[in-house]
């Protein structure tokens, strides 16, 4: 949970006169969620944040989604996705999966994105590789390998890669944050939480940019609109509050282990509307003398399980064709588990060197064009080693 921060210049009391050097008033903007009944931030602009000079409808490039039908486990390879040499982190996104709660995309960005604002819900960006800067109305955030970036709804931002930046992106239809069971009634991380406030990074100073007639692409419930603002939206001289973009690195997640195999909720890192995000990191594994370290076979009764493999060697999937950059989708209605021989091979292991990001959704995930383009048709038959596409 983002804690209270104060960045840049603000007046001693909110909603009171705060004057610029020329004597004019700074313009307040309250960014708040859930209708003034939850977290907010109060920003102070040099110019009116309401001053637009044009608004144009923009065609939405997203293609329709395809149901996972026939229902089966699937394997996709983001490492095979093709991107133009000048793709950016907003317009270059390719859709992997989606449902009414979340759209999941991937991009390899090499140039700065347009200014962008998602007014539908929070975004969670995971940096699979590379580095860059996420410039926002609150300030700038330097990001690199393994960083999760939480961008609150309606935050104006752009992504500036430093070289090639590989991003796994979740676009929610609501808010994304730490699981409530990690937090006290006042919002502080509790002692059993696998990460805490010290592991979070937020903007440390304003990003004050001058400019006139500046375009901002906005995603909203009816589609896409391009606004032209009279002045650059990054004209904020200061802000305070508990609502702002923040960064958490997967390497700072402290794994929870036990004598026998622990269920996926111990890896949970974020929750969103009808989905959760888990972090699997290098860790000591089960220490009961008869423990079987890899997962047991399990049926996803109420959820689809999507795993993004980003580092190390994932023990349970050996022999399946999965590698770094792969995504496995194990849908509700299908029992899945380790590959043949993996349970026996794991006996006696005391540590797993693996890093993965898992998304569990409580409504089925449909397939986007990027998933359809990169599916490995053999995966569903890899447990039996025979089937329609097995050779």
TrEMBL record:
SUPFAM superfamilies: RmlC-like cupins
Coiled-coil residue windows: none
UniProt keyword Oxidoreductase, yes or no: yes
Transmembrane residue ranges: none
Domain Homogentisate 1,2-dioxygenase N-terminal stretches: 20-249
Keyword Oxidoreductase assigned: yes
Cofactor: Fe cation
Cross-referenced Pfam families: HgmA_C, HgmA_N
Keywords: Dioxygenase, Iron, Metal-binding, Oxidoreductase
Residue ranges annotated for the Homogentisate 1,2-dioxygenase C-terminal domain, each copy included: 293-383
Homology family: Belongs to the homogentisate dioxygenase family.
PANTHER family in UniProt: HOMOGENTISATE 1,2-DIOXYGENASE
Protein name: Homogentisate 1,2-dioxygenase
């Amino acid at each position: 949970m983002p804690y209270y921060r104060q960045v840049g210049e603000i007046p001693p009391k909110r909603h009171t006169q705060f004057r610029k050097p020329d004597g004019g008033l700074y313009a307040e903007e309250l960014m708040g969620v859930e209708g003034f009944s939850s977290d907010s931030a109060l920003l102070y602009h040099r110019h009116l944040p309401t001053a637009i000079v044009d608004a144009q409808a923009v065609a939405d490039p997203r293609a329709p989604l395809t149901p996972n039908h026939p229902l089966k486990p699937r394997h996709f390879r983001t490492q095979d996705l093709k991107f133009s040499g000048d793709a950016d982190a907003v317009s270059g996104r390719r859709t992997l999966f989606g449902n009414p709660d979340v759209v999941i995309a991937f991009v390899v960005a090499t140039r700065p994105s347009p200014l962008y604002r998602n007014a539908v819900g929070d975004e969670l960006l995971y940096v699979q590789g590379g580095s860059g800067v996420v410039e926002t109305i609150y300030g700038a955030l330097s990001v690199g390998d393994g960083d999760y970036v939480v961008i609150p709804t309606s935050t104006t931002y752009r992504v500036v890669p430093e070289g090639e930046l590989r991003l796994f992106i979740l676009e929610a239809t609501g808010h994304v944050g730490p699981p409530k069971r990690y937090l006290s009634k006042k919002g502080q991380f509790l002692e059993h939480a696998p990460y805490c406030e010290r592991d979070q990074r937020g903007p440390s100073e304003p990003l004050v940019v001058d400019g006139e007639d500046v375009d901002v692409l906005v995603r909203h419930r009816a589609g896409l609109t391009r606004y032209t603002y009279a002045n650059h939206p990054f004209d904020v001289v200061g802000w305070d509050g508990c609502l702002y973009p923040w960064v958490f690195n997967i390497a700072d997640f402290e794994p929870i282990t036990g004598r026998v195999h622990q269920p996926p909720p111990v890896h949970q890192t974020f929750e969103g509307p009808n989905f959760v995000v888990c972090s699997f990191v290098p860790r000591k594994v089960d220490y009961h003398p008869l423990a079987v370290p890899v997962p047991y076979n399990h049926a996803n009764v109420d959820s689809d399980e999507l795993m993004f493999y980003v580092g190390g060697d994932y023990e349970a999937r050996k022999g399946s064709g999965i590698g770094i950059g792969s995504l496995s989708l194990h849908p509700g209605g299908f029992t899945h588990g380790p590959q043949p021989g993996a349970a026996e091979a794991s006996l006696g292991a005391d540590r797993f060197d693996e890093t993965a990001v898992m998304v569990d959704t409580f409504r089925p995930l449909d397939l986007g064009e990027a998933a359809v383009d990169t599916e490995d048709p053999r995966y569903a038959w890899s447990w039996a080693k025979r089937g329609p596409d097995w050779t």
